[in-house]
């Protein structure tokens, strides 16, 4: 019937013959260029297992936020409050876990995490109601949120720094023990690869049944590409040893959290009606409404999702720092939005991908870390990062064949 | 026979503009009612109220004899009212099959999520669209890159795919080629035979006299008059549209010019 | 209240200013004076507006924690022109007629460097500086350099990494420290962190590579930092008993409001150690060096409860925890 | 022919029968509500001559930026770099005036101001070229600018604060002597009123000649309204005395700068083709292009204008602080965007007014100042301002009769 | 007589889609050439290249015998080529008169600025629009709130107001009422009499045979053939459009079906 492969069309992005998103691929290319450049400038440090491990951990918070921000931006909204919400939720978790609940209770950290996520959802719903039901522009609402929740973060503990957290909770931060270890990392890799392979086979069989011309070779090549990249990633994480030992660390927990978020969000945006509605609203909200899409409810849900992701990011951040401070998360909104936009989300709505946002976050963090590795001062760093961001997006534009 | 739709005293104003004023219209099963009028007469506004896209200011609408609120497009769909909007209502960033099933995707419910069956939707979409325009092959192209007629084809395909009982067609063939237009004419006859009621807005007198059973003419938001197709001539209808003059065989409405 | 005292904070989002305020408030309330405050949130422009607002409220004396000691001068001029005495609180404003009440920030830097050098006389140092746009961070750095520059010159100490911390945010300090550790492959012997917040980030970074325990400095005497000192993961904090400074500020403010001549205030000295060498009346407190050995000082001063201080401490407990 | 009054239609905003923009009027109403509320809460301080004088001076910088931001937003772009550009230009002016050029030369300050404005235009052009000609999203370009020019502001003098400025230059900051004085203030008032009246008469005569039905009464009423408000403003400014004297201050210089900017920008957006093109581009850039509008050149010019306004704002700020600091202008971008959005600019383009932006800036600054006057704590202030912003925009939406 | 426009071997592809392939078309002064074809045949794309909205991939265009780059709409305007785009190209936030003069406002140059003469533009706009649709009174309403036909009226008014030598009309009457359509027909005849060359894209065979002098039929991006109106019948033209079959009286193009 058609000779194209059957890819989820909702993202409305050009895909190449193998069904990969062209834009994301060209971004990955740029990331590689940046990494290799820093590798040479830093005398071989950048692509060391250790730095890559750090990079993954450091990226996770911004990447988690960027995933949610992509949804927000696709619906033609913006969320300036994410840094403040993260800070506020982090402080509430810290206060509960350290000051209110008994410190040695086993239920303490799970309960506080649950409360934190609930609080995040609530804050997201608050923003969502203002935006979707009251019709106040998201810029204004979330600017209000930026102020309100930063103020609240201070009020929670009167500006005090709260520490230390439960040792199990701290694993979320990817500290010295916060990684899976070598064996479990490979096991996880194997499980995911098997599931992925099975999924592809099932989809393929279904497509054959409906008479679509879906080439096996394309699918196989794609599977192999994913397999090799994932294996390389696991091997790298495993080859970074714990201090003064030869025990490999394996996949860090924050990366695991990010991975779960990404898989879930990719699933939602590609395969569910909710994801489809998000793109339809961004493309033409009036058309979406005329076709009976519950536009307001959908936007509300998007902001709730953003709130939950802020809470998850808050867990990772506070666990990593092993302290709750009222300034946690300041200015993160800029990084999160930048990651989403670099990853291809368009502020005029209707366009963006989760994978792109993650790559965008990796690019930003690579620049940050790389500049420190080569010993640049903070003002030089700012100038260089600013320039590279602009050039990267420009290069991406031409590489991906837009215009 | 009981009418499918009865609109009574329906009005709508935008600021100072009385787009629709005190309109009464009926639609029976298996009937095609053409709604005619000059540009800006209020035809689209009237139909949008029936489609749940605008809320009416006053008046009642009965569907199958039951009063209907029609406060949202979803409510209209539930009552079996499908619409081809003049603006087409397509999301430009999505492709043909995504637009065709927009809001009513084929999906399996899994927990809180509905997982779309893209393959199935693609398959259906290809079939419906092919029925209207066999040359339409770029099913994977986002709508913004389609030609005017291709876009209109998607909007028509959408409205006929979800078996409606009432179909509102707001200038459905404006951008279509002669062959495509003929196919839509064919389609209207088929649907009519199935007992579906159709409101057809069109400026093409040919089409109207070819397809419609009854005509309603609007002018400046009011009904000039309505008539069986066979009771009036093309020239009389033009007189209704342009001059607001209601011929003797037609039933005059509040917008008819009283004196000559 | 017959006397109203205005306080313009540079940025209030830190633990210690809350404590300053409680001292200040206590001192003023005893005398029946009222305190009104405003927070400039790290912005010169906002601080100028805040001071306009405080003057409009009719304060009798104005305390200022300047975000920038130069950019604040037009506001000071305005206050003085209206006959409102101005006290530079904690951060010096070199302007004739301004009274200066502070813990010496340069001394803070000195204390940090001195203690680190004592713990680690030779080796590879990292400096995690404060916010590059905060003048205060520059003062601290001056003190640190005073001590370590000679040692750098004679080769005992090498600076292997140096980064500013945007907005003093601990997360930023943590990331910077992690990357420096990568750059030098963990060859770090001591870290000069500028305050307790950044020190927290540094210690978290060190912990993740198993280096916790190497000398790290800080200032302010945050609860979390004192706990780290007890645990042995931080070496020193330059403790500024903010309550005491607050009370001192209150005392000076009340005197000036009553019309006492600055030089007649008890404990007033002439201070001309600022960069411009302007002579002004001042009451300067010295920060207290707090290390593992003298943690009892903070407990005795009721600054921290023994419970908070010793949370999680097992081996090598400081005397204060016994 | 038509019975409506003949208002410049390009703004495409509802106007009431008197030809005033409904949205702006309802915003003014909100401002009044906020002011009166604070007046009572602060025990009569808010509406004192002194506080109003301060408010005007404090608002000027954000309002100047918001005027330019409105143009940027109307073209469906955004400028995140304004705070950094302001800081960087301010530092360059400070360096030249204080360190490089002879301090006592009379040509020093005019030359440095000119150089600063030139630099602002250049920076704006740099952004504009990336956005309009290279097609990189304005969010990315100006985020780059935010980093680059903040870094540059630091590098200019290695983070040092530079002071003091030339005494004449300091007048731009509206300090103790930085106001017009009583007599000149009234004179200026008279001149402007005469010019305005003449303009209305001319327009009216032209409309009569073309057969438009333009009622004299409407015009007269509007003239009277403007007259009364302006007279009240001048009288208030004149009644605030210099310290320990009874010499009235008059209109402060920063307000004068703002007034010039506003009049110029209102003129440009309402009466020139350039202004028309800005709105057309925001409404439908493809339609603008198809009608032969030089879309890229227009966007470039908008960013150049923004750069010049940043430079003007830099002069006011540095003169007010009498110092150049590398942190000057931090976070100002948020205030400027917020002012424009509150003033009715829509981030999806094609809508916005200069007057609205100025009122938006006044609302934000009134909240900031008012909270100090009533002695709220810092975190209370953040929470309250956040909430009031949201409520204000919501109220405005309903007051102005939008849905 | 020298042709106004000569297009030779013009092609344009979007990604893999060959929207226009190797097209040759001429237009003479005072001639109306109808461009026909199924939906997605490439008519709009071809015309957009002539209007300077798309750059052609290959081929040459001669205007008055001189090669023209046609790299921007402004260049086309300078050559006297005006276009009514199928998408209308209206800025939805501006009103009728602003849209009518968009890009070519009546203005006085004062220093670096051009100050618009709004009163004059409003006056002209009212006149031109009234000529097409006397019922169009809401001249101050932003275009987004106008009816489909009112919007189209503005686009037509714009194209005729700036005295063109070549006028491209891409389905100009699709949304117009019968009266308005008749007035546009009248207008076309007037312009023709003044020696203006017109490309008319329309799906309405009636209109086409009424107004055109010559027909060019496209299919899948290629020209099927062209013919004088009087040399072919309506059925033959439909055959060209639908089947790509070139009748004996027409001059075949590269897209004509060879066998059969
Ligand atoms: N910007 C674009 N990107 C990709 N494909 C395009 C683009 N514009 C047009 N096309 C494709 O080119 C082909 C020709 O389109 P065109 O709009 O010229 O058709 P048309 O003859 O005007 O049809 P209609 O009668 O429906 O208006 C179509 O298949 C369309 O999908
Ligand atoms: N959202 C709106 N806001 C303001 N006025 C509107 C709005 N929608 C329609 N109108 C006005 O209402 C009147 C009727 O418009 P409508 O679209 O119903 O006309 P129509 O009969 O469908 O015309 P056409 O044949 O041109 O499609 C017009 O004068 C139009 O300007
Ligand atoms: Mg209509
Ligand atoms: Mg077309």
Automatic annotation (TrEMBL), chains A, D:
GO CC terms: plasma membrane
InterPro entries associated with the record: ABC_transp_permease
Transmembrane residue ranges: 27-49, 55-74, 81-100, 106-123, 130-152, 172-199, 220-241, 247-268, 299-319, 331-347, 382-399
Main location: membrane
Keywords, sorted A to Z: Cell inner membrane, Cell membrane, Membrane, Sugar transport, Transmembrane, Transmembrane helix, Transport
GO molecular function: transmembrane transporter activity
Subcellular location: Cell membrane
Topology term for the membrane: Multi-pass membrane protein
Pfam family, one: BPD_transp_2
Domain of life, per lineage: Bacteria
Function recorded in the entry: Part of the binding-protein-dependent transport system for D-xylose. Probably responsible for the translocation of the substrate across the membrane.
Protein name, entry field: Xylose transport system permease protein XylH
Species for this entry: Halocynthiibacter halioticoli
Lineage of origin: Bacteria, Pseudomonadati, Pseudomonadota, Alphaproteobacteria, Rhodobacterales
TrEMBL record, chains B, E:
CDD domains the UniProt entry points to: ABC_Carb_Monos_I
SUPFAM superfamilies xref list: P-loop containing nucleoside triphosphate hydrolases (SSF52540)
Annotated InterPro entries: AAA+_ATPase, ABC_carbohydrate_import_ATPase, ABC_transporter-like_ATP-bd, P-loop_NTPase
Source species, domain of life: Bacteria
ABC transporter domain ranges (all copies): 5-245
GO terms for MF: ATP binding; ATP hydrolysis activity
Keywords: ATP-binding, Nucleotide-binding, Repeat, Sugar transport, Transport
Pfam families: ABC_tran
The name this protein goes by in its record: ATP-binding cassette domain-containing protein
Species in which this protein is naturally found: Halocynthiibacter halioticoli
């Amino acid at each position: 019937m058609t000779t194209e492969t059957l890819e989820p069309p909702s993202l409305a992005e050009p895909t190449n013959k193998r069904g990969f998103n062209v834009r994301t691929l060209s971004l990955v290319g740029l990331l590689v260029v940046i990494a290799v450049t820093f590798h040479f400038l830093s005398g071989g440090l950048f692509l060391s297992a250790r730095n890559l491990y750090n990079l993954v951990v450091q990226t996770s918070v911004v990447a988690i936020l960027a995933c949610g921000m992509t949804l927000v931006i696709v619906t033609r909204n913006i969320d300036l409050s994410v840094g403040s919400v993260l800070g506020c939720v982090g402080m509430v978790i810290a206060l509960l876990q350290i000051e209110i609940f008994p410190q040695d209770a086993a239920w303490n950290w799970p309960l506080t995490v649950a409360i934190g996520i609930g609080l995040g959802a609530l804050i997201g719903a608050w923003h969502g109601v203002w935006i979707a039901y009251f019709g106040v522009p998201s810029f204004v609402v979330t600017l209000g949120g930026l102020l309100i929740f930063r103020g609240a973060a201070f009020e929670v503990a009167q500006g005090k720094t709260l520490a230390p957290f439960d040792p199990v909770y701290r694993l979320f931060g990817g500290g010295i023990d916060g990684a899976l270890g070598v064996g479990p990392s490979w096991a996880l890799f194997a499980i995911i690869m098997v599931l992925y392979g099975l999924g592809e086979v099932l989809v393929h069989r279904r497509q054959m049944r409906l008479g679509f011309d879906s080439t096996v070779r394309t699918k196989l090549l794609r599977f192999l590409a994913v397999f090799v990249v994932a294996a390389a990633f696991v091997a790298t994480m495993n080859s970074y040893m714990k201090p003064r030992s030869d025990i490999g660390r394996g996949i860090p927990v924050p990366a695991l959290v990010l991975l779960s978020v990404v898989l879930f969000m990719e699933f939602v945006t590609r395969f569910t009606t909710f994801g489809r509605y998000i793109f339809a609203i961004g493309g033409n909200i009036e058309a979406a409404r005329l076709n009976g899409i519950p536009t307001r409810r959908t936007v509300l849900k998007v902001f709730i999702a953003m709130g939950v992701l802020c809470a998850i990011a808050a867990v990772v951040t506070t666990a990593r720092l092993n302290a709750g401070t009222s300034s946690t998360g300041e200015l993160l909104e800029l990084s999160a939005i930048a990651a989403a936009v670099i990853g291809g989300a368009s502020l005029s709505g209707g366009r963006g991908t989760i994978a792109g946002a993650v790559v965008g976050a990796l690019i930003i963090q690579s620049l940050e870390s790389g500049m420190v590795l080569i010993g640049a001062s903070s003002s030089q760093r700012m100038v260089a990062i600013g320039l590279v961001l602009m050039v990267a997006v420009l290069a991406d534009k031409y590489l991906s064949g837009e215009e | 026979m009981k009418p499918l739709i009865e609109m009574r005293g329906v009005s709508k104003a935008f600021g100072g503009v009385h787009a629709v004023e005190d309109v009464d219209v009926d639609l029976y099963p298996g009937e095609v009612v053409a709604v005619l009028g000059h540009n800006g007469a209020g035809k689209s506004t009237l139909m949008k109220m029936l489609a749940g896209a605008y809320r009416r200011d006053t008046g009642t609408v009965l569907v199958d004899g039951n009063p209907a609120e029609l406060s949202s497009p979803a409510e209209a769909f539930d009552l079996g009212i499908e619409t081809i909007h003049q603006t087409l209502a397509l999301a430009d960033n999505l492709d043909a099959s995504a637009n065709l099933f927009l809001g009513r995707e084929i999906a399996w419910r899994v927990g809180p999520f509905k997982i779309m069956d893209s393959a199935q939707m693609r398959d259906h979409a290809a079939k419906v669209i092919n029925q209207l325009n066999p040359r339409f092959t770029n099913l994977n192209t986002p709508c913004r890159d389609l030609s005017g007629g291709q876009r209109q084809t998607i909007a028509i395909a959408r409205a006929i795919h979800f078996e409606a009982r009432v179909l509102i067609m707001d200038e459905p063939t404006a951008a279509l080629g002669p062959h495509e237009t003929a196919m839509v004419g064919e389609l209207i006859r088929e649907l009519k035979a199935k007992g579906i009621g159709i409101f057809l807005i069109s400026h093409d007198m040919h089409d109207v006299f070819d397809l419609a059973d009854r005509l309603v003419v609007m002018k400046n938001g009011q009904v000039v008059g309505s008539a069986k197709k066979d009771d009036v001539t093309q020239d009389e209808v033009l007189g209704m549209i342009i001059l607001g003059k209601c011929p003797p065989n037609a039933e005059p409405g509040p917008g008819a010019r009283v004196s000559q | 209240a017959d006397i109203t005292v205005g306080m313009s904070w540079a940025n209030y989002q830190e633990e210690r200013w809350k404590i300053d305020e409680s001292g200040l408030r206590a001192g003023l309330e005893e005398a029946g004076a009222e305190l009104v405050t405003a927070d400039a949130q790290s912005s010169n422009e906002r601080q100028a507006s805040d001071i306009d607002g405080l003057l409009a409220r009719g304060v009798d004396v104005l305390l200022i924690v300047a975000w920038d000691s130069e950019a604040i001068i037009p506001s000071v001029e305005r206050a003085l022109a209206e006959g409102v005495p101005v006290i530079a609180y904690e951060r010096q404003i070199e302007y004739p007629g301004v009274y200066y009440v502070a813990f010496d920030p340069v001394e803070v830097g000195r204390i940090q460097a001195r203690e680190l050098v004592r713990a680690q006389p030779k080796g590879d140092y990292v400096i995690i500086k404060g916010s590059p746009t905060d003048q205060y961070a520059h003062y601290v750095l001056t003190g640190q350099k005073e001590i370590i520059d000679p040692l750098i010159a004679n080769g005992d100490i090498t600076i292997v990494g140096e980064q500013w911390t945007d907005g003093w945010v601990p997360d930023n300090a943590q990331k910077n420290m992690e990357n420096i550790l990568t750059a030098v492959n963990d060859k770090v012997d001591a870290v000069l962190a500028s305050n307790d917040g950044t020190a927290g980030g540094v210690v978290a970074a060190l912990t993740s590579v198993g280096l916790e325990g190497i000398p790290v400095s800080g200032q302010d005497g945050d609860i979390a930092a004192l706990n780290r000192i007890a645990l042995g993961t931080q070496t020193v904090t330059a403790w500024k008993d903010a309550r005491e400074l607050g009370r001192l500020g209150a005392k000076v403010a009340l005197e000036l409001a009553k019309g006492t001549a600055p030089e007649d205030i008890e404990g007033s000295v002439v201070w001309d150690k600022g960069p411009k060498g302007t002579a002004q009346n001042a009451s300067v407190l010295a920060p207290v060096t707090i290390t593992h050995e003298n943690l009892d000082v903070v407990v005795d001063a009721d600054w921290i409860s023994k419970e908070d201080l010793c949370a999680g401490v097992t081996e090598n407990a400081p005397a204060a925890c016994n």
